């Protein structure tokens, strides 16, 4: 009898809320706007706006570098292209954020399977650039499977580990470990050491959040150290990168560490407040100014203060998501949202570490700020999923008859 009364009260409360909110609250867009984390959405929009300004600052330098002979690249070409990618990607982010959790999970599982197959064939049919095969040519353009696979992999891993919460006997640790190992192997064949670190790092973080025993994590940590040692011994690309960073050869330092050294020089050239928009000059000596080293261009033209603000914005994404997940009871949503937030934070941290010279070059873009179509669309999908998994009904959660208090009363 009590349950029946409470059920009527909940329905009456919902009807009252909808009446107060009007018809717009009952529409899909109105319901989405009521439930979405508007602070997180605003942070994403601020990052995208900062990225467009940063690409505008870096575009002339990259245009000069890629011009020569009969080829003349317009100074603002990368800016206008990035604006086009944003116009395409932002609606994708909004649409994905509107997906129901179940549908989003199923699409990610399907996408992970398709993209894993694409990743497997990339080392053999991919387009070679700078000694790596990371892109597949589709005729009308190129796309990087690993960029799109990251959010799909995180959601898939979160779902598999959430099954363990229902039945601890399921061997999901080994299933997700095998999946991660296959992806890491494909990435090392490209080679793409930076993406390998992201996949393995996020997997390890999800294991910790899922409550894997400390002893198991210690064993996995020791195995990880062993794999790094094996990569250094048997994987030439990793050995060259590590040796070049830790033990630079004075005879070849000018060429081996040119990018990292020049990025540091560009980053610090503007001082605390920068030279102002368009005032940078050292950036014209920097390779990949619009992609991997755009953080350095921001430092020259807008100062170290702007760089610190960008770092704090990425930190705000992680903190905001984890605070919002403090009372989350759904294991899948908890793991998926935490993993996606950590992906953004880890990728930004690696890119900034390379730009300031405390990590070797890895070809890692700065999320939403670096130029790139594949990167922008993939990151928009990831942010859309993050917004979808952190959606909440604020009126239901405030009700004394909400699911959490009701279950506690029982």
Brief overview:
The protein is mostly helical and 410 residues long.
Write the layout of secondary structure elements.
Blueprint: H1 2-21, H2 23-26, H3 28-35, H4 38-66, H5 77-97, H6 101-125, E1 127-129, E2 132-137, E3 142-143, H7 145-166, H8 172-189, H9 193-209, H10 214-234, H11 236-246, H12 253-256, H13 258-269, H14 294-324, H15 331-355, H16 373-389, H17 394-398, H18 403-409
Antiparallel strand pairs: 1-2, 2-3
Characterization of this structure:
- The model is unreliable at 398-410 (pLDDT under 50).
- With 410 residues, the chain is mainly α.
- The two termini are 14 Å apart.
- It has 18 helices and three strands.
- The chain has a three-stranded antiparallel beta sheet with strand order 1-2-3.
- Helix 5 runs parallel beside helix 16 (373-389).
């Amino acid at each position: 009898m009590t349950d029946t009364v409470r059920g009527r009260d909940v329905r009456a409360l919902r009807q009252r809320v909808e009446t107060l909110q009007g018809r717009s609250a009952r529409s899909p867009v109105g319901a989405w706007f009521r439930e979405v984390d508007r602070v997180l959405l605003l942070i994403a929009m601020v990052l995208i706006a900062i990225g467009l300004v940063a690409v505008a600052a870096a575009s002339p330098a990259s245009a000069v570098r890629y011009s020569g002979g009969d080829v003349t690249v317009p100074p603002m070409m990368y800016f206008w292209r990035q604006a086009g990618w944003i116009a395409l990607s932002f609606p994708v982010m909004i649409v994905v954020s509107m997906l129901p959790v179940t549908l989003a999970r199923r699409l990610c599982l399907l996408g992970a399977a398709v993209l894993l197959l694409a990743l497997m064939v990339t080392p053999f049919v991919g387009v070679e650039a700078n000694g790596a095969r990371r892109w597949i040519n589709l005729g009308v353009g190129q796309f990087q499977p690993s960029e799109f696979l990251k959010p799909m992999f995180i959601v898939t891993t979160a779902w598999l580990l959430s099954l363990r919460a229902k039945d601890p006997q399921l061997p999901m640790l080994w299933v997700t470990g095998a999946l991660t190992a296959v992806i890491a192997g494909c990435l090392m064949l490209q080679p793409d050491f930076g993406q390998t670190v992201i996949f393995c790092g996020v997997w390890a973080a999800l294991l910790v959040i899922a409550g894997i025993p400390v002893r198991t994590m210690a064993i996995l940590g020791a195995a990880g150290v062993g794999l790094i040692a094996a990569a250094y011994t048997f994987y030439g690309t990793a050995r060259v990168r590590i040796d070049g960073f830790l033990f630079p050869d004075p005879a070849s330092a000018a060429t081996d560490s040119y990018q990292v050294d020049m990025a540091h020089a560009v980053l610090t050239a503007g001082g605390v407040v920068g030279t102002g928009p368009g005032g940078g000059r050292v950036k014209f000596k920097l390779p990949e100014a619009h992609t991997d080293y755009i953080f350095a261009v921001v430092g020259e033209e807008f100062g170290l203060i702007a760089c610190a603000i960008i770092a704090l914005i990425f930190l705000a994404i992680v903190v905001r998501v984890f605070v919002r997940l403090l009372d989350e009871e759904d294991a899948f949503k908890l793991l998926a949202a935490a993993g996606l937030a950590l992906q953004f934070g880890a990728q930004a941290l690696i890119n900034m570490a390379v730009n300031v010279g405390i990590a070797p070059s890895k070809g890692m873009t700065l999320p939403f700020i670096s130029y790139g179509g594949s990167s922008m669309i993939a990151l928009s999908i990831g942010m859309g999923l993050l917004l979808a998994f952190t959606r909440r009904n604020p009126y239901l959660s405030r009700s004394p008859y909400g699911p959490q208090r009701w279950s506690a009363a029982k």
